[in-house]
Design brief:
The protein is an alpha+beta fold and about 400 residues long. It is built from 14 helices and twelve strands. About 55% of the residues lie in helices and about 15% in strands.
C-alpha cells in the first residue's frame, strides 16, 4: 500500500461520484441525515447545557437553596405531605449557621396565573415572589433603580422590583422607576428593574416580580410555600450546607434515623443533576442517529456491489497486468470511504444549518457546533464506509481474472 495507490484510488472514486451524481447522493443520503442529526442535535444539547449551567451558576457559587421538594409536579405522596418551610426556619438558619453570610426567605404565591398591567399593556404568567433585601446578594444586579430595602419590607411598603422582559413589555418607552403597576389587582411602585440573568433557559423571559416579604404576606395571605436562599461565605459552601441541614432537622423535629423532610441543594449539585440528564439525551440521540447511518451504510454496500458487477471486466484487466488482491481491496475501500466522507461533510453542513436555525428561533440559546460532535460525525461516516465497504471490496478481490475478462 503506497501513497500513490491511495491518491489514485481517491481520484478514481471522485471521478465515479462526478459521473453518477444522483446515484451517489441517494446512496449516502442516510449518512448525511445521520451525521447532520448528530451534529445538529449535539450543538443544541451543548448550547442548552451551557445555558442551564450558566443559569444555575448565576445564582452564585456560594448559594445554598432549600425547598420542600425539588420534584415539582412529580412529587411523591411523602413529598406532597411535607410541611412547608417557614419564615421561622429561615430566621433559625440566619441565627445559628456561622458559615452563612445572608439568608432570604422567598415566599411563593398560591397556584394560579399571575398578571401584571400598566396602561393597557398586560403580561401574563409573571414569576412572583416575596423576599428580602438579602436576595440581591445572590447575584441580582440592577438595570434601573435599586432593590427594595429592609425598611420597606418591615413597613409593608407596596414597592416592586421587576424583571427586564416585564419592563420591556409594560414600559418599553418610559422610565420605569417611580411608575405604579397593577399586579393581580394590587398597585405597586416600581423601584428597580433587574438585569436579565447572564444566561437563561432558552425561549423563556425574565418574568420575575419581587415584592417585600411582609408586603406579600399582607396582600396574599394564602401564600404559604417558602424557599430559603442562603448565601455562604466564600469557600464555606459545604460547611454551610451541613449547618443548614442540621438546623432545619432540629427546627422541623426530624427523627435521627429519618430522612430529611426538605430538599437542600447548591448550584453545582443542580448542574451535576442536569448533566446526567443531558448525557442520557445525548445517548438516545446517538442511538437514533445510528439508524440513519445504518441505512446509509447498507446503501453504500449495495451500490458498491453494483459497482463491482459493472466493473468486473476492469478488475480482470487490472489483475491480468499484475494487480494484487490488496490493490483491488484498497481501490474499492477507498471509493467507499470517499463516498461516505463526502456524505459526512455534507451532513456537517446540514448540522451547522440546524444549529444556526435553532439559534435564530431561540436567541438565548448559545448554539455552536461542538468539536466532539463534528469529529464524531465525520469519523463515524468514514467508519461506515470502511465497515460496509469490506464485503464488496473482498468480493472484487476474489474474482477470477480469466472469468472477469470474459464478462460482458
Amino acid at each position: 500500500m503506497t501513497i500513490g495507490a491511495v491518491n489514485s484510488g481517491i481520484r478514481l472514486a471522485l471521478t465515479t461520484v462526478v459521473e453518477h451524481k444522483m446515484r451517489s447522493f441517494l446512496t449516502v443520503l442516510g449518512v448525511i441525515i445521520g451525521t447532520g442529526a448528530v451534529i445538529g442535535v449535539g450543538s443544541i444539547i451543548a448550547g442548552l447545557d451551557g445555558a442551564i449551567t450558566g443559569l444555575f451558576r448565576s445564582w452564585g457559587p456560594n448559594t445554598v437553596i432549600v425547598m420542600k421538594t425539588m420534584a415539582m409536579g412529580h412529587a411523591t405522596r411523602e413529598e406532597r405531605s411535607r410541611r412547608p418551610l417557614t419564615l421561622e426556619n429561615a430566621r433559625a438558619v440566619a441565627d445559628r449557621c456561622p458559615s452563612v453570610e445572608h439568608v432570604s426567605p422567598y415566599l411563593l404565591p398560591s397556584d394560579g396565573m399571575r398578571r401584571a398591567r400598566y396602561k393597557g399593556n398586560d403580561y401574563y404568567g409573571v414569576q412572583m415572589g416575596g423576599t428580602e433585601e438579602g436576595y440581591a446578594f445572590g447575584g441580582a444586579t440592577m438595570k434601573y433603580g435599586r432593590f427594595f430595602t429592609d425598611t420597606e419590607n418591615s413597613h409593608h411598603m407596596p414597592v416592586v422590583v421587576i424583571g427586564e422582559d416585564i419592563q420591556k413589555r409594560l414600559l418599553p418607552t418610559e422610565d420605569p422607576v417611580g411608575k405604579w403597576i397593577d399586579v393581580d389587582g394590587h398597585e405597586f411602585e416600581v423601584v428597580g428593574v433587574m438585569d436579565r440573568p447572564p444566561t437563561q433557559i432558552p425561549g423563556t423571559d425574565d418574568a420575575r416580580i419581587l415584592i417585600p416579604y411582609f408586603t406579600m404576606r399582607k396582600l396574599f395571605p394564602n401564600a404559604q410555600e417558602h424557599i430559603i436562599i442562603a448565601i455562604a461565605y466564600t469557600g464555606k459552601v459545604d460547611q454551610a450546607e451541613d449547618e443548614v441541614r442540621s438546623v432545619l432537622r432540629l427546627e422541623r423535629r426530624v427523627p435521627f434515623s429519618a430522612p430529611d423532610n426538605f430538599t437542600i441543594t447548591t448550584a453545582e449539585q443542580m448542574i451535576e443533576q442536569f448533566h446526567s440528564v443531558t448525557a442520557t439525551v445525548a445517548l438516545v440521540m446517538v442511538i437514533l442517529s445510528s439508524i440513519g447511518l445504518l441505512v446509509g451504510g447498507i446503501g453504500v454496500m449495495n451500490i458498491m456491489l453494483v459497482s463491482v458487477t459493472e466493473r468486473t471486466r476492469e478488475i480482470g484487466i487490472r489483475k491480468a497486468v499484475g494487480a494484487r488482491k490488496s490493490d483491488i481491496i484498497l481501490q474499492f475501500l477507498t471509493e467507499a470511504v470517499v463516498l461516505t466522507a463526502m456524505g459526512g461533510l455534507i451532513g456537517l453542513a446540514l448540522g451547522w444549518i440546524i444549529s444556526l436555525a435553532a439559534g435564530l428561533v431561540f436567541p438565548n440559546l448559545p448554539t455552536a457546533v461542538p468539536l466532539w460532535a463534528a469529529a464524531a460525525g465525520v469519523g463515524v461516516s468514514v467508519g461506515v464506509g470502511l465497515f460496509f465497504g469490506i464485503w464488496p471490496a473482498g468480493r472484487a478481490a476474489r474474482l477470477d481474472p480469466v472469468e472477469a475478462l470474459r464478462y460482458e
